[in-house]
Amino acid sequence: MTLTDQNPAVPAAPAAARIRTFHPRRGRMSGRQTDALERLWPEYGVDIDELDGPFAPAALFGRGAPVVLEIGSGMGDATAAMAVADPGRDYLAVEVHTPGLGNLLELVERHGLTNVRVAKGDALDLVRAMPTDALDAVHVFFPDPWPKARHHKRRIIQPEHVALLRSRLRPGGTLHCATDWAEYAESMRDTLTADPGLTDPHNGFAPRPAHRPVTKFERRALTAGRPVFDLIHPRQP
Q1: Which residue, 46, 72, 158, 228, is the most exposed by fewest CB within 10 angstroms?
Q2: Assessment of whether the complete model's pTM goes beyond 0.90
Q3: Which candidate, 78, 99, 94, places its Cα nearest to that of 228?
C-alpha cells in the first residue's frame, strides 16, 4: 500500500466526536473464510485504523484504472460479480463484518480476480484520507437504515457525508445508492437531489440498472414485498 502527499483539507469533526454509521460486528467464520483471510489479507487487505497519512486507492492495484468504492460489501457476492463483469475498473470493498471480508477474499481467489481489494473499518475515515477526484464511482448498497428516529444521525446518506463522498468522485463520477427501506429511500432522494455538486438525471429514483447484481438480501426483501429503490447521481462535470 502506497501513500500519497495529495490530500486537500476537508472540514470534519474530530475523530473522537464522530458518530459511527455502523455496528462493529464479529461473526462465526467458516474454515474457508478463515483460511482465505489469513492467507490473502497481506496481499489484498487494508486496515483503515492503521492508516497514518493520505491514501491513494489506485496505488493498491498497481495500475491506473478507474476505482469503484464499495461501502458495506457484505458477504462480497455482488462485489465479486461486478468485478468479474467489469475488469476495466478496480473495486475497493469496505466492510466491518469479518466473515464478509473472508468470504470476498475466497471469491477473489476462486475467480482469479486481480481488480479487487478489501478494507476493514470505517469507510468514511478511508474516504477522508483520499485525494479529490480519486474515485470513478461510489456504491452504497443496502446500508443500515437505522429506522428509529433517534438513530437517523447514524445514517451514512446525510448531507455532510454525501458532500465528502462527492468530493472524492472525479467529475462525471457516480454515487449510486440502493435500499429496500422506503422511508430511508425518500430521505436519500431528498439528500442527494439537494447536493449542489450532484446531478439528478433520473429526477429522483432511477430504473434498476442491470449491472447491479441481485443479492440474497435483495431477494429476501422482494419476497417480503419490499420494493427496492436505486438512486444514481453523477458528480457535475
Answers
A1: 158
A2: no
A3: 78
**Distances in Å between the alpha carbon of 30 and those of 33, 95, 98?**
5, 17, 11
Q: Measure the CA–CA gap between 204 and 200, rounded to whole angstroms.
A: 7
- Measured at the CA of 98, the angle between CA 95 and CA 104, to 5 degrees, comes to 70
**pLDDT tens-digit profile of 16-51?**
446 655 556 666 889 999 999 999 999 999 999 999
Catalytic residues: 144
70 is in an annotated binding site: yes
Give Cα separations from 87 to 108, 152, 221, 225 (angstroms).
Answer: 13, 36, 29, 34
User: How many alpha carbons fall within 13 Å on the CB side of residue 234?
Assistant: 7
C-alpha torsion angle, residues 45, 49, 51, 55 (rounded to 10) = 70
Q: In a 3-state reduction of DSSP, which class is residue 214?
A: coil
* Helices 182-194, 159-168: crossing angle, 10 deg rounding: 60
Q: At 232, phi and psi to the nearest 5? A: -125, 110
The pLDDT averaged over each successive group of 10 residues in the chain (237 residues) is: 36 51 66 96 96 92 96 95 98 96 98 98 96 97 77 83 98 97 96 98 96 89 94 97
Domain ranges of the chain: 44-234
Residue 50, marked binder: no
**205 has binding-site annotation:** no
The second-level CATH assignment, the architecture, of 44-234 is 3-Layer(aba) Sandwich (3.40)
Ligand-binding site membership of 144 (annotated): yes
